[in-house]
Amino acid sequence: MNANSKSIGTSRRAIGRTALLAGVLALAAGCESVDRAERWVEDKWIVKDHQLPKQQTDIAVRQAQTSATVAFAPRSAALSRDQRDLLARFVAGSGAGRGDNAQIAVSPAAGRALADRRAQSIAAYLRARGIHVARGYGPGDPDAALVTISRLVAVPPSCPQWDNLMKRRTVDEYRPQFGCLDAASLATSVHRPHDLVQGRPTGPSDGPTLDKGLQNLREGKYDPPVTPVSTGSPQSPTSGTK
Fold first, then answer.
1. Per-residue pLDDT reduced to its tens digit, 167-224
2. E-strand stretches of the chain
3. Is 88 domain-assigned?
4. In three state form, how does the secondary structure of 225-242 look?
5. Residue 74, in any domain of the structure
6. 56 three-state secondary structure
7. Helix (H, G, I), strand (E, B) or coil at 66
8. Residue 38 C-beta-side C-alpha neighbours within 13 Å
9. 101-106 and 144-155 as β-strands: parallel, antiparallel, unpaired?
10. Which residue of 24, 56, 211, 233 has the smallest Cβ count within 10 Å?
């Protein structure tokens, strides 16, 4: 190999190293560009915590009351069909269920005995639906009773409007509204809003019962009884002697 061949090989290796170094630098510059782009997205498109105050994303639990007037015929304590239907629509519209409370206020103007019977007629209807009832007297129509249902309700947060966020370009499709929609869904689906205020008390532990059952299983107390079976061959009866 002459000097010219060695010089060409050295030049080729130098060009290769230069190209490799240029590729590495380009890759590094590309990664840095990607990082800058991601930071720009973080700054421009993602909703910041300070843009959604905590009180805007919290679930509010408050006491709600609604009332209806139930009328009776003069000197009667029986609920007419129309008034029973009215009471049914009122209870259904209030969303009341088991564990909620109702207050019945009747006027004693027509006599306390009649007022008590009227309150009892309404109370029987409400108690059949699991509603706790308290009765009392109050001013009003002598032939009517005021029924007030009170219950805890969960009020969903006021989530920001999606179209407004899009116009302001402060929304991230992967983390929209920082859990506000989750809180809104929980508020509309929770069965007992009081559980959002205080959890239900725990009952007794099932550990001892489960342990006793496992011990009985290991000792074979649940095994079916074994019926002994004879292993001998039964003898057929003789058919007679010849």
1. 655 554 444 444 577 778 888 888 888 888 887 788 788 888 888 888 988 988 888 8
2. 60-71, 101-106, 132-137, 144-155
3. yes
4. CCCCCCCCCCCCCCCCCC
5. yes
6. helix
7. strand
8. 6
9. antiparallel
10. 233
Please tell me the number of Cα atoms within 13 Å of 218 on its side-chain side. 6
Same domain, 45 and 118: no
The pLDDT of 37-41, averaged and rounded, is: 63
Both structure tokens of 159: 């989530």
Q: Does 176 lie in the same domain as 98?
A: no
Quote the radius of gyration of the chain (alpha carbons, Å). Answer: 40
Average pLDDT over every residue of 66-79: 92
The DSSP secondary-structure symbol of 140 reads S
Amino acid sitting at position 112: R
Structure tokens at 149: 């249902």
One domain, residues 136 and 78? yes
Whole-angstrom distance, CA of residue 190 vs CA of residue 206: 27
In the block, residue with structure tokens 């421009």: 44
**DSSP bridge partners of 144:** 71
Q: Residues in the chain, how many? A: 242
The structure tokens listed for 70 are 């139930």
The pTM is what? 0.52
155 DSSP β-pair partners = 60
pLDDT at 30: 57
114 burial via Cβ count (<10 Å: 0-12, 13-18, 19+): buried
